[in-house]
């Protein structure tokens, strides 16, 4: 699945986000305009990892702000069996989440 945002979604998620102008330009090009990350790496002389990180910072802000009501994002380190169970719960919750 390609990560894509509308112009309105992009503008909403960068509002108040503390990132540099170059990060915003890269993320806009990739997430809104659909340009390949490799284009920015080549044109700006950046590593592919740096470009990916710029895009992911904006995408993470979007994802954090767009959780369904009553949902919460968690991160945990668990024993293997418990992690398996939590992953199953996440799959089940995704199936039940309200459609946008």
Provide a descriptive summary of the structure in words.
The model has no long low-confidence stretch (mean pLDDT 91). This protein has a domain at 7-65: Arc Repressor Mutant, subunit A (Orthogonal Bundle), CATH 1.10.10. It has helices at 7-14, 21-32, 37-44, 48-65, 80-96. 9% of the residues are buried. The chain is built from five helices and no strands. With 100 residues, it is mainly α. Helix 3 packs across helix 4 (48-65).
In which range does the helix fraction lie? 55-70%
Number of helices: 5
Shape: globular
Terminus-to-terminus distance: 17 Å
| Element-by-element helix/strand order | HHHHH
Strand content: under 5%
Major sheet, described briefly? Answer: none
Low-confidence spans: pLDDT under 50, at least 5 residues?
Answer: none
Query: Tell me, what is the CATH class of the domain at 7-65?
Result: Mainly Alpha
Kindly provide the radius of gyration, computed on alpha-carbon positions and rounded to a whole number of angstroms: 16 Å
The strand count comes to 0
Q: Write the CATH architecture name of the domain at 7-65.
A: Orthogonal Bundle
User: What is the CATH topology classification name of the domain at 7-65?
Assistant: Arc Repressor Mutant, subunit A
Give the helix/strand class.
mainly alpha
Average pLDDT over all residues: 91
Brief sketch in words of this structure:
With 100 residues, the protein is mainly alpha-helical. 63% of the residues lie in helices and 0% in strands.
């Amino acid at each position: 699945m390609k990560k894509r945002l509308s112009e309105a979604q992009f503008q909403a998620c960068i509002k108040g986000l503390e990132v540099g102008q170059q990060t915003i330009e890269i993320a806009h090009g990739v997430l809104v305009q659909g340009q390949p990350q490799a284009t920015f790496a080549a044109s700006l002389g950046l590593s592919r990892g740096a470009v990916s990180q710029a895009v992911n910072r904006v995408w993470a802000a979007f994802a954090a702000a767009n959780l369904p009501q009553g949902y919460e994002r968690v991160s945990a380190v668990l024993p293997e069996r418990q992690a398996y169970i939590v992953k199953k719960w996440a799959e089940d919750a995704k199936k039940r989440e309200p459609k946008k």
